[in-house]
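yo

u said u wanted the structure for the complex thing, so here. seqs first:
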Amino acid sequence: MFSSYLLSSLVWMPIGFGFLHIIFNSYKLSESLAKIFSLAFNIPLIYLGILLYQQFDSNNPAFQLTERFAWMPFLNADYYLGVDGISMPLILLTLLLTPAALLAGFNSSKGKYSNYAGMLFLLEGMMIGVFLSLDALLFYFFWEALLIPMFLIIGIWGGPQRIYATLKFFLYTFFGSIFMLIALIYLYIKSGSYAIESFYGLPLTETSQFWIFLAFFIAFAIKIPMWPVHTWLPDAHVEAPTGGSVILAAVLLKMGGYGFLRFSLPIVPQASADLSMVVIVLSLIAITYIAFVALVQSDVKKLIAYSSIAHMGFVTLGIFSIFHIDSFDLSLLAIQGGMFQMISHGLISGAMFFAIGVLYDRLHSRNIADFGGVINAMPKFAALFVFFGFANIGLPGTSGFVGEFFVILATFAVHPLVSILAGTTLVFGASYTLWMIKRSIWGEPSSIRIENLKPMDLRESLVLIFLAIGVLALGIWPAMLTDLTSASLTELIQRLGL
Amino acid sequence: MSVNDYFIISIFLFAIAVAGIFINRKNLILILMCVELILLSVNFNFIAFSEIYQDFSGQIFVFFILTVAAAEAAIGLAILITLFRHKKSIYIDDLNELKG
Amino acid sequence: MHLLLSLIFIPLLMSILVGVFGDFISKRLSHVLTILGVLISFICSIMLLNDFLITQQTQDILLFNWSIIGEIEFQIGFLVDSLSLAMASMITFVSLMVHIYTIGYMEHDEGYKRFFSYISLFTFSMLMLIFSNNLLQLFFGWEAVGLVSYLLIGFWFKKPSAINANMKAFIVNRVGDLGFIIGIAIIVYYTGSLHLGEIFSQLTSIEGQLISILPSSSWHAVTVASICLFIGAMGKSAQMPLHVWLPDSMEGPTPISALIHAATMVTAGIFLIARMSPLIELSSIALSFILIIGSLTAFFMGLLGLVQNDIKRVIAYSTLSQLGYMTAALGVSAYSVGVYHLITHGFFKALLFLGAGSVIIALHHEQDIRQMGGLRKKLPITYITFLIGTLSLIGFPGFSGFFSKDTLLEAVHLSEQGGSHLSYYLLLMGVLITTLYSMRLLFLVFYGSYRSTHYPLAKVHETPWVVTLPLLLLAIPSIFLGGLIIDPMIMGGYFSGAIFVSPENQSLQEFIDIYHGVIEFIIHAFVASPAIYLMLLGILISWLIWYKNYSLPKQFASLIKMLETVFKNKYYFDYLYENIFSLNIIRLGKMLHKWVDAHLIDSVFVLGSARTVQQISSKTRQLHTGDLTQVALIFFVLLVIFTAFWIS
Amino acid sequence: MVTDLVFFTSVAILMISAMGVITSNNPVHSALFLVSCFFQSSVLWLLLEAEFLAIALIVIYVGAVMVLFLYVVMMLDIRKNQHKQSVSSILPIGIGISILFIAELIFALSGTNVVQTRDTGVLSNPNNTEALGIELYTNYLVEFELASIILLLGIIAAISLTLHRRPGLKKQEISQQVSVSKKDRLKVVQVRSGEGA
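structre next:
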């Protein structure tokens, strides 16, 4: 049964689990039982993920395993799901990171674990829904609906300034989405259907392309986020609970990049090409400017949040460079770099935020000055933290390297300066990450609390080791991801006529 | 005297009742009374039309209006009493919870 | 193939075993495992070298496809040729010696197992680097050795100076890596491949291309690519102005100073340029650039060694200076000579470092040479081996270093490359300076009287055999290796398959033509080159100053004082980087964060829009008096208006 | 002629009373003026053949609703000096708008020509009360029942709104007294011999 409605199961099963958890809460299910349930629920989901991976044909660029039913016939909106090479890795990422986020909330859910898990499952289902929807209205539905659980996660389990942060997060992203909705409605009027495929290749005038691109761009740029609409991210991350940060950094940001690949590029190729230089410049600003800003952060979560922005700069840089590259191979390299960076950043930043959560649970501080000499009390944690730090820097052998490497290589074809500016991340990324590591991990224990830190427990080590293996595996053999995406991205580039 | 005169009575009664809402700064009871007056003016219309068209519907409707108005008055006064218990006042200027 | 894989991956395996399962194995087992790993590596590399010498066959092996993007193949594979095998033999041998030495040096350290895990990992990374057949893997090894170097410099992570030094080392290296990666990008852009063989076969597609990085200026792509690659090499091989990390890296334990920061990792830059010789050869501007940088480094960094009082730092500056020599050799297209000097230097410099380490252990972690003296009698083995190392370093005739340095000087002398005359004289002066600081170190440490007050001489005794054995084993190649391999390596064209020298840069050939054996080489050195006399002069001067304590004439004193301030401040490079670059970057970051992020974007745009809404609503909220009559009035007014519409 | 006289007298009193309702300062007076209004309306409705409704108006409004009003007015003890401002600031606008409204409606009325149909006697055959009753219990039965439910709801709502439980009031809870069990009241203590107080 699951195999014939695989995609629907992937979307609705987590949502069902989410509601189950909320029901558990109202029946006062014991905390430990809820934890066991929440982990057990992941088993069928991961199994579905494996099924999906097996059934997916990576050589086929088209949408696969599609399910289509009439949903709102009067609007020509269908319940239409499908998976291709672009959404496939993002779904796997979501499936893998949600357990990490669940585990992160075990001791920090303020006694409301059941609700917390419920929200995360709802979020998971909706995120998968965003990646699987092939109907614009359905896409929009999931896109907006997932703000609610995220809003609640930050708003209920967040830090002291959580109300400000949630409102900022919500209003920022909501503001962007409105424009996207307008664009989608316009496209619906033009094409007569909400199916995304029907938007592809619409004969749109240059002016309408421009406005549609702009509308999409605002929505996706805020989500990803790009400079200068990035300021919600540090605040949201700082106030979010660990699990919320993990999901936010690992998956939510990727929706922006996914949107560019699914909507902006194929629907309005002309406008994308015309405005690509603007995006490239903004991405370069994100990469360089944000690095400076990250360097001076005293809050470790803020630092990682800023570094996320810089890393996502590589995603947009890679995606939009393709318009300025003559050679097909290098175009593909650029866009693959962007795609790879999304997945890799998901793993690495997820792990970084998780690791910071481990420290936060013990010290109740995110201030770098309050750390220092953590290695003395928690050597294994320090080893993993330094490992993820180096993955964040983009050390070859970790997944962080691949995306940056691809993009830097490919953007040389755009202009040498682009490549050099993008390459400065090698220096600046190393600077802020190592400086942070130096102040937090190395050195003598800065206080008695650091000396008495208790080492990682099994739950924490398992998550971090698991993510570390993922990061290493992708770094050592990136082909397992690039092969998955290659057919779809190739088709995308060909569709653009480059 | 013609049936039109009843309409004019109705109009004046309505206008007086509405003006009563504006004039009165004293208490809510007066507003409730004005509402009763407004209902009365409406009833006049129904009855007049009933007479004009020789149709019972108008009178039936007035019958129902009377029923509902009675219930309304009872509930309105009950609310008023509850309100008075909470705020120790039914002075209109004190009832500005909706102030933005 | 199996030999090669075990050569490279067994150290990795051992490193993972010891690193991950360190809690479950004893100290003894951890060093046995890693030493066994490196020993296997060493044996394999000797066997492969032997095979190669017999068959003369270069092998290019594909391990797996890392990723294939369109037509661009990112692969992991190995290139087994003369260059990589020569390097591998040296690396595995030095690494083996260092492994053994570490048993003694780190005996009482908490991080004993961690250390062994790191150095085995380093050996693996270095082997990945040198055996790589493509730029991707080369970059991987390049960064991996950087990582291990970072971890090892900060090995004693409680020492603030150590954790500062490791961060500095990594970040400075990253500046170089930026150049490297841009170089790779240029090469991929023009040739569409990362595989070394394919790149070299497609060099025509890059030759003659112009790149304009800044508007209104354009350079030859070859030159830019070569210089970019060389910037990478400058970072790793600590050439001016990216040298600042190397002296600081001496904060790490001495064995790694010997292994990483003298013999192997820092020579990766030299290796890279030698590896890329077919590309570099196409640009004489790049060659001149390399030559000038190299000779400047050789001269100026040597000078700094004169004023250092830390035994390891003196040797570190000596390493910098020697790396400058190698770079200069590359600059005159004498790649084989560069690599030759690299190999001999690897041995005697490792010997010197390990010897210094031996002194340090004997004096119970005392590194200041002002606190030493007269240790000749107390530490006989260390003294003898240190002396051998020093003689080899200063190029005393007959010693290993003599051959490589003399060949190098001849190559620069005969070269017609732009800047080669200046370089030649800088390098010649460098010989004098090398002798001065080396002999100063020798005299201050082993001669004269013991000066330390807090560690009595009576307690000083020779170090255990695990320390002295590597010294003795390294002393042998430090004496003989140079003489033994000069014949095949330089004169016999051993590198002909791996290194390409374009016909117009064949200056070394003249030297090869007049070469008639080792003995004649030594005799020729006395006749043809002033280097040997400068060396002898150096010994004389240093004997006078630091042995006889002959004070300098007054008029020199003030000049020397002034120079000393400059030298002590290391030409103000650190000042420039730390106080001007770093500080201003942080200041810029704070400014951007405060003014752009917090004020402009957040206050003006984000909160500004919120504030505008608030202001508008605070005006409109006054309409909501909450007055019932008013509500009723509005209601009624609207009723009147609609009625008016309805009746009209 | 007599009808005209009755009509105009009633109208005059109705208008004066209505003005009295809205202008008098004392709510009791207002209520009494309102009673007068209802009486006059009742007279006028009689003229319109609505005998039953006229009587019902008096019974319901005068007899029940207005008494309720008076009760409430008396119960609440509204002090006369409570109001600081006896005339609303928006009074001129209110009156202006009211006049405008009157003008509008009269204008509307003058434009239409309502033609009175001949008296068919439907409304008083055999008499108004019976005719209305027949109509109500046949054609409007469902609505009639609904009206009763509304009244019921009104009763329940009024009671539940005004029912006021004062905390701290001492009173008997019989249901609780009855449902008491032994172990709530009785505690068996084992007293060791020789240790008892």
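The mean pLDDT of chain A is 87. Chain A is about 75% helix and 5% strand.
cya
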